[in-house]
């Protein structure tokens, strides 16, 4: 194999080359114009055929030898092209120190071995994570676990699951308490499986954003001008204006809300770029929702307390952490005082609503907030929310023969149905006797108290607010008051603002994503304007919009057309 060597004379290779043997044609350049029939600028109502330009060029063929002879007269050809029968030498690179060294062949292709694998690994991982069927499968798996979490009672003691999912009678033949406790389904939304799927879905969203959405936005933001009519005709929509100006087209497009850019005879216009950014916003909104949900599941506190009227409790004493990110705040030192508990009733006597008047006290005992809460009207303070969820009757204040008042504790009694019933007992006589007898008192709510004598016979009904005495077995009884207890649920949820922000952003970006990103290119070709465009949405309406815009472009006639033709010839 022979190599190119500048020190040796090349072999003659022109005899192997065949040139066209034909006389040179010397013809002048001819431009055929047209004579307009009108001399006014008017609106185009229909498209006219493009101008007919007949062009004849003079062609000459020069050999490298001729160019070499005229090198002193013209500098058009500066180097001689040499054709060789030999193949090109292999690529080489110098290695070693600056003084010189042996030549080593250049490695072709990508890296091999461990380093090549390390370089290719991120791309492969991104390609796998951004695979759409994988993301859809992740979402279905998360939805299935969420549905399973609503079916399985959450946060119960292990004995509860032993009894409900025994190994002797497994659900569907296989599901027992071992599945629940081993996989963490008793706290589904903080279980490793659920959090891992959320993390995997988040990684898929970020990979899709990085590999697909961001490159699309970069391409959409680039101002690219087309320099050939063939490229414009390949677009989804294309048309030509036989006698028009690209500047007039730009004015019309600007009036339609397009951003217009001109560069010589080329035009580029676009609108609806926000529609290209919207998918990125949708992905970020979904990430916010998942981050907020994870923060709520793993960083919250919960607590439940039943507090009688007039008593206090400290928030930190009743709160328990939910996940590994749960961190108490200064608000946990706040003391809550139940000022009053009362109810409203329907005409039928059923409870319609119950209220609790609460005061929040700091470490110095100073009231920092006071509010009356009810169902669906909670109290919020320092990231803590206190909900009104339940009620009970804690005690009765009773006068016996004008002595007292005595506080008699009320205990809940089990009855069929969802009705509540509370009872108490006032002993009469020797309380240390083996068979103590007394007066029984029952109450369904705070409105009225039903009394029974020592034999269990009905004695009467009294309202606590009436203060009317009743005579039972020679004892004068007065019901002074019925003291209620407020059932409160306390909760901290640091992820709620993040989830709300995510859903708000998701709704906004979803609406923005329906905006069409339309692009238009135009090229001034003599007196004609070649126009083309495309859009990512509303592909059926885009041609109609383009036709309406092109109909508004003024038509060039008479002197304007002559100047345009002169510019083309020049």
From TrEMBL:
Q: Record's InterPro entries? A: Cyt_c_bgen_Ccs1/CcsB/ResB (IPR023494), ResB-like_domain (IPR007816)
Pfam families on file: ResB
Q: Name one GO biological process term.
A: cytochrome complex assembly
- Region of interest (Disordered), residue spans: 80-107
Q: Where in the cell is it found?
A: Membrane
Q: Which GO terms describe its cellular component?
A: membrane
The alphabetical list of record keywords is: Cytochrome c-type biogenesis, Membrane, Transmembrane, Transmembrane helix
Which residue ranges traverse the bilayer?
Answer: 128-152, 193-212, 277-297
Q: Does the keyword Membrane apply?
A: yes
Q: Does the keyword Aminoacyl-tRNA synthetase apply?
A: no
- List residues of the ResB-like domain: 134-394, 447-546
Main subcellular location:
membrane
- Membrane topology note: Multi-pass membrane protein
* Protein name from the UniProt record: Cytochrome c biogenesis protein CCS1
Q: Which organism is it from?
A: Pyrus ussuriensis x Pyrus communis
Q: What is the lineage of its organism?
A: Eukaryota, Viridiplantae, Streptophyta, Embryophyta, Tracheophyta
């Amino acid at each position: 194999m022979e190599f190119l060597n500048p020190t040796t004379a090349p072999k003659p290779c022109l005899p192997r080359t065949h040139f066209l043997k034909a006389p040179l044609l010397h013809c002048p350049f001819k431009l055929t114009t047209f004579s307009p029939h009108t001399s006014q600028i008017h609106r185009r109502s229909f498209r006219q055929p493009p101008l007919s330009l007949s062009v004849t060029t003079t062609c000459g063929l020069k050999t490298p030898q001729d160019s070499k002879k005229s090198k002193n007269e013209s500098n058009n050809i500066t180097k001689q092209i040499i054709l060789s029968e030999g193949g090109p030498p292999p690529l080489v690179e110098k290695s070693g120190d600056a003084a010189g060294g042996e030549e080593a062949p250049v490695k072709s292709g990508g890296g091999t071995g461990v380093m090549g694998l390390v370089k290719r690994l991120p791309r492969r991982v991104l390609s796998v994570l951004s695979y759409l069927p994988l993301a859809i499968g992740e979402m279905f798996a998360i939805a299935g676990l969420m549905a399973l979490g609503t079916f399985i009672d959450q946060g119960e003691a292990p004995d509860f699951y032993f009894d409900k999912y025994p190994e002797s009678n497994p659900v569907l033949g296989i599901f027992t308490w071992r599945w629940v406790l081993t996989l963490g389904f008793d706290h589904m939304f903080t279980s490793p499986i659920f959090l891992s799927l959320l993390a995997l879905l988040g990684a898929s969203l970020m990979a899709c954003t990085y590999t697909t959405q961001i490159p699309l936005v970069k391409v959409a933001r680039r101002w690219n001008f087309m320099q050939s009519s063939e490229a414009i005709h390949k677009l989804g929509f294309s048309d030509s204006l036989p006698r028009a100006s690209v500047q007039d087209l730009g004015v019309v497009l600007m009036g339609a809300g397009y951003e217009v850019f001109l560069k010589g005879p080329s035009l580029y216009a676009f609108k609806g770029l926000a529609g290209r950014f919207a998918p990125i916003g949708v992905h970020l909104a979904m990430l916010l929702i998942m981050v907020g949900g994870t923060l709520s599941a793993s960083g919250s506190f919960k607590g439940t307390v039943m507090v009688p009227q007039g008593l206090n409790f400290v928030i930190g004493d009743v709160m328990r952490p939910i996940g590994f990110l749960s961190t108490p705040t200064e608000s946990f030192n706040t003391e809550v005082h139940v000022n009053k508990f009362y109810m409203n009733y329907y005409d039928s006597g059923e409870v319609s609503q119950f209220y609790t008047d609460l005061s929040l006290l700091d470490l110095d005992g100073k009231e920092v907030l006071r509010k009356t809460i009810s169902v669906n009207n909670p109290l919020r303070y320092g990231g803590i929310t206190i909900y009104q969820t339940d009620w009970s009757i804690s005690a009765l204040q009773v006068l016996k023969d004008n002595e007292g008042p005595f506080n008699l504790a009320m205990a809940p009694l089990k009855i069929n149905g969802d009705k509540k019933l509370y009872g108490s007992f006032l002993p009469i006589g020797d309380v240390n006797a083996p068979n103590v007898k007394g007066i029984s008192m029952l109450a369904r709510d705070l409105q009225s108290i039903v009394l029974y004598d020592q034999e269990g016979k009905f004695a009467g009904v009294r309202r606590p607010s009436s203060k009317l005495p009743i005579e039972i077995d020679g004892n004068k009884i007065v019901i002074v008051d019925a003291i209620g207890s407020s059932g409160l649920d306390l909760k901290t949820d640091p992820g709620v603002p993040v989830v709300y922000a995510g859903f708000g952003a998701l709704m906004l970006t979803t609406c923005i994503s329906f905006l069409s990103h339309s692009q238009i290119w135009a090229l001034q070709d003599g007196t004609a304007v070649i126009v083309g465009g495309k859009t990512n949405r509303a592909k059926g309406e885009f041609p109609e919009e383009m036709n309406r815009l092109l109909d508004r472009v003024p038509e060039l006639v008479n002197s304007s057309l002559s100047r345009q033709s002169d510019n083309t010839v020049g």
